[in-house]
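Report of the visiting student (M.T.), summer placement. My assignment was to run the structure pipeline on a short list of targets and document each run. The first record concerns Major Facilitator Superfamily protein.
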Amino acid sequence: MTASSAGESGTATPLSYWQVFTSRNVPQLLLAASFSRLAGSMLLFAVVLYVIAEFGSASIAGLGAFFLTLPGFLVSPVAGAVLDRLGVVRAVVLDTLSSAVLISLVAVLSVLDTLRPPVLFALLTLYSLTSPLTSGGIRTLFPRFVPEAAYDKANALDLSTFSVIDVVGPLIAGTLVAWIGPDPTLLCVAVMYALASASIALLRESNAGADAPVRQHLLRAAGEGIVHLVRNPTLRGLAVSYSVYQAASGMLVVIVPVTVGRWLGDADATERYVGVLWAGAGLAGAIGALIAGKLVGAGRERSSMVAATLVGAVAIFPVSALGSLVTLGAGLALVGLTEGVVNVSLLSLRQRRTEPAWLGRIMTVSISVNLMGFPVGTLLGGLVVSHSVTAALALAAALAVGSAAFARFLIPREA
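After the run finished, the structure tokens were exported:
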């Protein structure tokens, strides 16, 4: 029995991971997601390594990362309206194809020795402007191909692959740059985007009837998406809670390397150990997502978010603050495990309580809003950890507790 047939028959029989994975269009969608995310994960590191090797400037490398990420963040609400205007499948194909072309152009101009920083920044900006179409579009498509009861498992499959890619992407990028050089590595990234586009193009759209273009002024549609999120109690509560949760995550990104560096006093050893610690957290996140896919279901999303966030707070403080690499690693692994549960619960709840016609705009707007807490967290982490590691971890844990409280009291029990 496929997921689509389960949805049509209305049966309440839970689907296994294998049934969800083999459902109509789901393999192509997961393949496209994996290719595009691996390409994106590799690209940031490849660009930074390329700029340092080519121009020998850390400031230009920082600007490259800036233009690679910020423009897409700023236009995320408009990207949601574009998804509705073009149709999700067409919009994702457009983004992945244009990404392949732009990154190929960077590599070709570099080989020809005609790539200068202003041209590089312009190409990276163009890449960034369309990137929300894929990040929001793929998660908009999942609810179209599985029944509502299978949202949790579909999101768990999606998030578990994302967690693994988040670990291996930088490793692959660094290995390829060292082995074949920056320019061929960028071409490999472009090929991955082309493969992602081909995977999306293989979707059988008869199962995506909601993908009909909507004719509406883009800025007006983007504004309506923001207003809809603010007025919807569930979406508003999720935005507040998860933004605070991301602030705690942002603090950890700064706290962990500083803490390990102070304990070891060796820069090379610090880099190795920090990489291992975050790899462990990422793999634990994949496991947590798969566990959540089995345990979380309709009506249990909010309580799962609250419980997992509180456990994560304890993992941050006191577990991670006990003063050794072992306890820090155990704490981060537990944080990753609970983060998988939080993310599956959040995605499933958002999908269940958002009308299909709004899902594209809500996904892209939510990505933008949810990430607002992260840079705030990195700023707080840098300020507090310079005075006290223990205080910084305690504050990060307090933010996690605050996130759980917001989820408990701001998100309605029912739609």
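The first helix runs from residue 3 to 9. The two ends are 30 Å apart (CA to CA). I thank the supervising group for their guidance throughout the placement.
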